[in-house]
Amino acid sequence: MSVIPLVLPDFLLVALGWALLHLLGFDRRFFVNAERLVYFVLFPALLFHSITRSPLSLGSASTLLAAAVAIMACGIGLAWLARPVLRPDPASHASLAQCGFRFNTYIGLSIAGGMHLAGAQSVMAVIVGFAVPISNIAAVHALASRNGGRALAAIARNPFILATVLALICNFLAVPIPDALNVALGRLGQSGIVIGLLCVGATLSLKGGRQHAPLIGWMVAAKLLVLPLCALLIGPALGLSVMEQQVLLLFSALPTSSSAHVLAAQMGGNGPLVAMTMSVGTILSALTIPMWLALVF
Predict the structure, then answer these.
(1) In the 3-class helix/strand/coil scheme, how is the chain assigned residue by residue?
(2) What is the pLDDT of residues 129-157, one digit of tens each?
(3) Which CATH number covers residue 288?
(4) The total number of structural domains that make up the chain
(5) 179 pLDDT band (50/70/90 cuts)?
(6) Domain of 280, in residue numbers
């Protein structure tokens, strides 16, 4: 399978999102509201639809949970290893640490859906659902542990987590999903992928933070180069199927979530520095994701 046609449509949509904001005069508030729609409605619908579409066993779910925990642990460890190695400014590192392990769900689910492998998008949805609380807790802890109580309450209400838990319950109990609802959820999910990728493009920014080049380079390299190497070891070690190993590799190679800079800004961190790092990673991932996928297809 050629991997370039697999990833090119998604990055064309990212580029279109950037052009809509910077060249075609779309209001930034349009993208803010669009991302809220994706976050609270469209992507939860996609997660629920993807997970309930393919039957799962407790054994397969527990293995995917172990894979998600292992990958996230590696990412968090790599991010914090920058402190003794580079000795960066602690405040800057607290903001950027999340760029070493947070992931762009929009790109991941879209590419997984285009793999033409039965169950690939469902596997990605399960891994994402398990990884979201881990990544959020780690990111919040790095930025400000004093806000942990409120943050944990917000994480418990996270629509991605709620959709994943509900979908897993329905899947394990074989709860029938009415056809009309199933079709509606599928259409919401597909529209969420498109709108989500456009929003990713609108958040790209290369301004600010150039004086932190070593730290930026560390986080981008850890996320796009080292973490996929970890996935290549973790997948076989846990006995994942070939398809599950491919999806885990894709998950590990995803660039940082475009919402990372929002979290940094809301919690008193360096939002522009995170936005620049996220943008560099997203642009470079157009090269690194095909490179990694070429190894397993």
Answers:
(1) CCCHHHHHHHHHHHHHHHHHHHCCCCCHHHHHHHHHHHHHHHHHHHHHHHHHHCCCCHHHHHHHHHHHHHHHHHHHHHHHHHHHHHCCCHHHHHHHHHHHCCCCHHHHHHHHHCCCCCCHHHHHHHHHHHHHHHHHHHHHHHHCHHHHHHHHHHHHCCHHHHHHHHHHHHHHCCCCCCHHHHHHHHHHHHHHHHHHHHHHHHHCCCCCCHHHHHHHHHHHHHHHHHHHHHHHHHHHHCCCCHHHHHHHHHHHCCCCCCCHHHHHHHCCCCHHHHHHHHHHHHHHHHHHHHHHHHCCC
(2) 899 888 888 887 777 543 444 556 666 77
(3) 1.20.1530.20
(4) 1
(5) very high
(6) 4-294
